[in-house]
Amino acid sequence: MDHSHHSSDPAVAELRGGFTSTRFVLVEPSHPGNVGAAARALKTMGFSRLVLVSPRVPHVQTDPEAIAMASGADDVLACAHVVPTLADALSGVHWSIALTARLREYGPPQWTPRAAAGIARDQAVHGEIALVFGNERTGLSNEDVERCSALAHIPANPAYSSLNLAQAVQVLAYELRTTYLSADSATATAHAAPRAAAGPGEPAGARAASDEIESMFTHLESALVALEFLDPANPKKLMSRLRRLFARSGLEREEVNIVRGIAKHILLKTGPRGGDAS
Predict the structure, then answer these.
(1) How far apart are the C-alpha atoms of 2 and 16, rounded to whole Å?
(2) Cα–Cα–Cα angle for 78, 11, 42, nearest 5°?
(3) d(Cα 231, Cα 247) in Å, to the nearest integer?
(4) How does it associate, per the subunit comment (predicted)?
(5) CA dist., res. 65 & res. 89, Å (int)
(6) Which class is 210-270 in CATH?
(7) What average pLDDT score do residues 123-150 get?
(8) What is the rounded CA–CA span in Å between residue 127 and residue 157?
(9) Phi, then psi, of 156 in degrees rounded to 5
(10) Does residue 176 contact residue 45 with C-beta atoms inside 8 Å?
(11) CA separation for the pair 41, 43 (Å, rounded)
């Protein structure tokens, strides 16, 4: 939580909402010291939500090295949420960005931290967002990257681009803080994505959550296989390319339902061979 003395200002109240609706996810962190230092990096920038996916050291929140490196941010460390998979970490999230150490040919769109922070600011208006960081040695798997909406890449010194995990968290947290504090509510509203008509009982333009999007891709893939448009033995990165296409669009719940409706009808038309994946 960001402790600003302008707490009565409604614009600041909304910005605080951005600080609390943003979670930082560390996937399989190896070193307790980095987890503690990441907690410190968050707290110095006004953030507090740290999620750890399958940390290599059990009970890392109470590890002496982690507590020492947290250096006063032990409240953030102690409240870190530990989950078994990235899918669990992204539960309830409608937009996420993965930090990648190298530029990738495939996967979601890639941004500098500053550009990513600007998009994150607009997305935070719609609900929960997440920043995802990989393991110190191996980074993020392709599967983890494709689960995210976009990629950020820190343009480090090419002769020595080895950026410590907690330092990378600090760079992204700083850029987010700067953007959150510089954008007033009017700017955020002006830049928010246009909203489509809603389904019954939900707000206009309600964003699809990560698990809903994953179910959509599973359903769509089954339909494309049933159509024989996608050959499972020779997929040619078709699903990766489709993920990239949909990631650019900022999927809303109604749009996910439309795609799933199309997939369902393809499976019904192609008969029992395809089956219904709904």
Answers:
(1) 6
(2) 25
(3) 23
(4) Homodimer.
(5) 24
(6) mainly alpha
(7) 92
(8) 34
(9) -80, 175
(10) yes
(11) 6
The CATH fold assigned to 18-184 is: Alpha/beta knot (3.40.1280)
DSSP alpha helices (H): ranges in the chain? 10-20, 32-44, 64-70, 74-78, 86-89, 113-124, 142-146, 165-182, 185-191, 210-226, 238-247, 253-270
Most confident of 181-185, 206-210, 232-236: 232-236
More confident residue, 183 or 150: 150
d(CA 268, CA 266) in angstroms, rounded, equals: 5
274, pLDDT greater than 90: no
The residues, any chain, with a CB within 8 Å of residue 223's CB and separated by 6 or more, are: 262, 263, 264, 266, 267, 270, 274, 277
Q: Spell 215-236 as b/e; 16+ CB within 10 A means b.
A: bbbebbbbbbbbeeebeeeeee
- Of 140, 110, 150, give the one whose Cα is nearest residue 251: 150
Report how far residue 134's alpha carbon sits from residue 145's, in angstroms, rounded to the nearest whole number.
Answer: 9
Question: Domain extents for the chain?
Answer: 18-184, 210-270
Average pLDDT value over all residues in the chain: 83
Query: Is-above-0.85 flag for pTM?
Result: no
Answer yes or no: is pLDDT of 216 > 60.
yes
Residues paired with residue 131 on neighbouring β-strands, in sequence order:
24, 97
Residue 103 CA to residue 96 CA, distance in Å, equals 17
Looking at residue 3, its pLDDT comes to: 43
* Exposed/middle/buried for residue 52 (C-beta within 10 Å: 0-12, 13-18, 19+): buried
The arithmetic mean of pLDDT across residues 175-199, rounded, is 60
233 Cβ partners below 8 Å, 6+ apart? none
Instruction: Look up residue 137 and give its two tokens.
Output: 């040695």
Rounded to whole angstroms, how far apart are CA atoms 143 and 105? Answer: 14
